[in-house]
Design brief:
Layout (H helix, E strand, L loop, with lengths): L6 H8 L3 H9 L6 H14 L27 E5 L13 H14 L3 E5 L4 H7 L5 E7 L4 H9 L4 E4 L9 E5 L1 H14 L5 E4 L6 H16 L19 H18 L5 E4 L2 H13 L9 E3 L16 E3 L2 H17 L7 E4 L2 E3 L10
Parallel strand pairs: 1-2, 1-3, 3-4, 4-5, 5-10, 6-7, 7-8
Antiparallel strand pairs: 9-11
Helix pairs in contact: 1-2, 1-3, 2-3, 4-11, 7-8, 9-10
Protein name: HTH-type transcriptional regulator DegA
InterPro entries: HTH_LacI, LacI/GalR-like_sensor, Lambda_DNA-bd_dom_sf, Peripla_BP_I, Rhodanese-like_dom
Pfam families: LacI, Peripla_BP_3
Length: about 350
């Protein structure tokens, strides 16, 4: 039988005091952020968070969701206001709409929190009366650790944390991007390139995996993993506009411009189309461009954007369904739910020039 992972064991592993480990895992002050992150990572690697009842406060939580007055119950929706993760977003907003509709059908309320700092979040969070949490988009480990600490059931949408175990909901990014790349190969685009910062999010990394696998299965060599358009750090529209422009000019000068550019999402694709037009290149006559997500602006692009439709509202509904199931079956194995996504064919793609 495996020995219990204690705070002392974590402290011995890192060569720090048990006091430092306790402070780090409790979310209290007095420990710098670097040390706190080291403690969290070590605790995860040693299996501390996966132990039953590990790191959870002893709290008498309401069980009304199983038969009491559920109208007094709410679900916390955590969507930190970073990376354009707001209700006004054409992508994230639709996911929240799906969550709201599903909760309303269950007679449950919704409390939206956009806080992204763990210390502020601790002051906001009051678990009494909350059935659980649905996390939307990028959320820091420190925030998720606070949720895990109090034992609040959670489901994450379009994000997963390697240190904090939870149920997750994603679009089927790998298969969808692979199908899109294969479609372009089928109409003659043997010179494809992915424009997506693969370190930015799990979804972008999965889309890169799908793109790469499609090329490799067809005996083609994908762009190197250290390519500039894969290693972008800042997705600010102004910054990306300039970085992509410089990449494009170098490719034009070297006469190795791809015939098709697959973009990590529609926002990226819209900027790519804009830069191509500025440099005198026609879409799709000179370069075909595709997006991903199928936000409303994709149809307003000139020409309208070929993309992958991510059923955003369905992801929100699936997360609520999974959360309610988790509440009633807390010991069931964790699940990663993949929602199918389909290619939407529009006018930004054509066969390559002969």
């Amino acid at each position: 039988m495996a020995k219990k992972v204690t705070m002392q064991k974590i402290a011995d592993h890192l060569g720090v005091s048990k006091f430092v480990v306790s402070k780090s895992l409790s979310g209290k002050g007095g420990v710098n952020e670097t040390t706190r992150e080291r403690v969290i990572q070590a605790a995860s690697q040693l299996g501390y968070f996966t132990q039953k009842n590990a790191y959870m406060q002893n709290m008498k939580r309401s069980s009304q969701g199983a038969g009491g007055d559920r109208n007094k119950q709410s679900v916390l929706v955590l969507m930190p206001n970073i990376r354009s993760q707001t209700q006004d977003s054409l992508y994230w907003g639709k996911i929240v709409d799906g969550i709201a509709l599903a909760l309303d059908q269950e007679g449950l309320g919704m409390v939206i929190v956009s806080e992204h700092r763990a210390d502020n979040f601790v002051n906001i969070l009051n678990p009494n009366g909350l059935l659980g949490l649905v996390g939307v988009g990028q959320i820091s480990t420190s925030l998720l650790l606070e949720v895990h600490r109090i034992g609040l059931p959670m489901v994450l949408i379009d994000h997963e944390d390697p240190l904090i175990p939870s149920d997750t909901v994603f679009a089927n990014n790998i298969d969808s991007m692979a199908r899109l790349s294969n479609h372009l190969l089928g109409i003659g685009h043997t010179q494809q390139h992915l424009i997506a910062p693969i370190r930015y999010s799990r979804s972008f990394r999965d889309r890169w995996i799908g793109f790469r696998s499609a090329l490799e299965e067809n005996g083609m060599k994908p762009p190197a993993g250290d390519d500039e358009m894969l290693m972008l750090e800042d997705m600010d529209s102004v910054v990306f506009h300039e970085e992509f422009k410089q990449w494009l000019l170098k490719r034009k000068k070297a006469k190795n411009l791809p015939t098709a550019l697959l973009c990590g999402n529609d926002f990226t694709a819209l900027t790519v189309c804009e830069v191509l037009r500025e440099e005198g290149l026609n879409v799709p006559a000179d370069v075909s461009v595709t997006g991903f997500d199928n936000i409303e602006d994709a149809t307003r692009c000139v020409p309208p954007l070929t993309t992958v439709h991510v059923p955003k509202e369905a992801m929100g509904r699936a997360a609520v369904e999974k959360l309610l199931n988790r509440i009633h079956n807390p010991s069931a194995p964790l699940e990663k739910i993949l929602i199918a996504a389909d290619i939407v064919h529009r006018d930004s793609v054509a066969g390559p020039r002969s």
